[in-house]
Amino acid sequence: MGYYDRFTSWAEEFEAAPMERKRMIMSELFSRIEVDRGYEVKIEVALNYKQFLENALPQTRIAV
Length: 64
Prior knowledge:
alpha+beta, two-stranded antiparallel ribbon, 52% helix
């Protein structure tokens, strides 16, 4: 399964989830979310790209 297919399946799962589950998923993905005046949104992601790849493809080792 490609990255796009995996991402769209995650997006569909998130869309169908109840609000409590959505909050739990977001708390795992993001370490901080700020909404400033004028609705400017700042998001800090809880994982780096290497961690994302390791979670997306646990059978693949990523060389650094």
